[in-house]
Structure formats: C-alpha cells, structure tokens
Write a structure and sequence with these properties.
With 263 residues, the chain is of the alpha+beta class. The chain folds into two domains: 189 residues, 3-Layer(aba) Sandwich (Glutaredoxin), CATH 3.40.30; 59 residues, Arc Repressor Mutant, subunit A (Orthogonal Bundle), CATH 1.10.10.10. It has ten helices and nine strands. The strands form three sheets. A four-stranded mixed sheet has the order 4-3-5-6, sandwiched between helices. It has a three-stranded antiparallel sheet with strand order 7-9-8. A hairpin with a 2-residue loop joins strand 1 and strand 2. The chain is globular and about 45 Å long. The chain starts with a strand and ends in a 7-residue tail after the last strand. Pfam families: Thioredoxin_5 (PF13743). It comes from Exiguobacterium sibiricum (strain DSM 17290 / CCUG 55495 / CIP 109462 / JCM 13490 / 255-15).
Length: 263
C-alpha cells in the first residue's frame, strides 16, 4: 500500500475520506525529563502514531516536578532539551534516549550540567549545529518556551508524570500514569463520533529511518511480533548494512545507518 507523510505519521493515499476528520484530535504528552520512567510511553505513542496518526496531532511537553514553582530547581535538563529541540524534535528524542541510557550507567550524576552538555555535543554527529545550540540556550526564546509549557502543565493540573491528555472538539480526557495500549485506542474511539480504521505499519527499514533507533522489545511491541521474529528481520537489514545493532543496559538497540546523519 502506498503511503505519504501526514501529521507526522504514515497515511494511506487510498483510504476513504471518512478516515480524514476535518479537525484531528490533539494529544499532549507530559513527561518528566529527569526520570527514566518518563520515556515509558514512547513505544505506545509510536504505535499510536503509526496506526492512528491520521487522527491526531501529538505534542510532547517535557517538564520536571519543580518547574511550576522553580524553587530550589535545577532547570538545566529542560533548558538544554529545549535548545536542542529548536533544531528539530528528532534531536530532542535522540537526546532523551541517550540520557536514559546514561542514567542507567551513572545514576543521578547523568543529570549534571556537564554530563548533559556532553550528550548535547555528541549530537553533532547527526547534524546538530553546536554554535547555534550555545546561542539558543542563553536566549529569551528558551525562557518563553518554558513559561508557555509550564502554563500547560498547570492548566491541565498535571500531578502524575507521564500523563496523556486527549483533546477532541467538545471533550478532553486525561490519562495519568501508564495503561495498556488498547486503553488509549478506546479513548480515541470515545472522542471520535465516526468510524475509523488503523493504518498499515511501514516496513521495518522505513520505521528505523523515521525513528533512527529502537530496542528489540520496543519494535516487537509496535509490530505485534515476538523478539525472535524482529531480530530475524533486523539481521537481514544488518547484512544489507542498513542498520547496526548496539548493546545497552536496557537491551539491544537498532540504529538506522543510511542517511542517519541527516535524519
């Protein structure tokens, strides 16, 4: 089936118009940038994007519990992340994934400003402009971004991280914490008053090209497959030099190789 990019996801070109609501839903993803558990919903959101991304726009709001008051609060993780994201959300997700891996090795010291800056500088491998990053981190733009996103956290009365807020035309549903995947699908059903079907997921190479890296378990969850089946298919890409496998504390990670520096 032919696909194109739509709302940050893969949309079928031959689906009936009934699947294209005039105003898609919005999903706000609130996460704690200083907790490894904060990325636990990422695989769920990737799967939602691939299967139902034609129905919603996703916005990630990274925060830390003390951000609304900023009392005795080190804002370095947020400042650095926001400066990175000004050059693209893909850079931000790479930074978050590497931060999670570093935390598994170094613990809380991974969140020191020096460690965070080293992680940011390592993203030059993928095309991050380091000079621009250093200018942005000191700019008023970053402060305005933080203020607006902190207002969202307060407005939504977010008390548990992560939280997903689903916003429809007339109703909104807030899901705090973690739930099974089908719970989130049922929320989409509840907010939409028209039938919809899930989209076909792209081949694995397209998936890796889009997301750059993913663990074996993450891919297995997204594709409803066993880890053995996933590894079998990924090893084919490995032999074709289209991906590389790396081992970290949270398991084997597969990284796309072709054009990875420009993803």
């Amino acid at each position: 089936m032919e696909h194109e990019q739509c709302n940050g996801s893969y949309c079928s070109l031959d689906e009936p118009s009934i699947q294209q609501p005039t105003k898609p839903l919005e999903i706000y993803h609130f996460l704690d940038v200083t907790q490894t558990d904060g990325l636990r919903l990422i695989p769920v959101l990737k799967k939602l994007e691939l299967e139902y991304g034609h129905l919603f726009r996703l916005r990630t709001i990274a925060t830390i519990p003390c951000a609304p008051s900023r009392s005795a609060c080190d804002m370095s993780p947020l400042l650095i992340l926001k400066a990175i994201e000004l050059q693209g959300k893909t850079f931000g997700m790479r930074f978050m994934r590497r931060l999670r891996m570093l935390h598994n090795v170094e613990g809380k010291s991974a969140y020191s400003r020096s460690s965070l800056m080293r992680l940011a500088e390592a993203l030059t491998e993928f095309g991050l402009d380091l000079a621009e990053f250093h200018r942005d981190i000191e700019s008023d733009t970053i402060q305005l971004m933080l203020e607006k996103e902190t207002e969202l956290v307060t407005d939504w009365d977010v008390r548990i991280l992560p939280t997903l807020a689903f916003v429809g035309d007339e109703e909104a549903i807030k899901a705090e914490g973690h739930y099974e995947y089908l719970v989130y699908v049922s929320i989409l059903n509840e907010l939409l008053d028209q039938p919809f079907e899930k989209q076909a997921k792209p081949p694995l190479e397209q998936f890796l090209r889009r997301y750059d890296t993913a663990t074996t378990s993450e891919i297995a969850f997204i594709y409803d497959a066993t880890e053995a089946q996933v590894e079998h298919e990924l090893k084919k890409l490995l032999l074709q030099q289209k991906c590389v496998s790396l081992t970290y504390c949270d398991g084997k990670v597969w990284r796309h190789l072709k054009d990875s520096a420009h993803a």
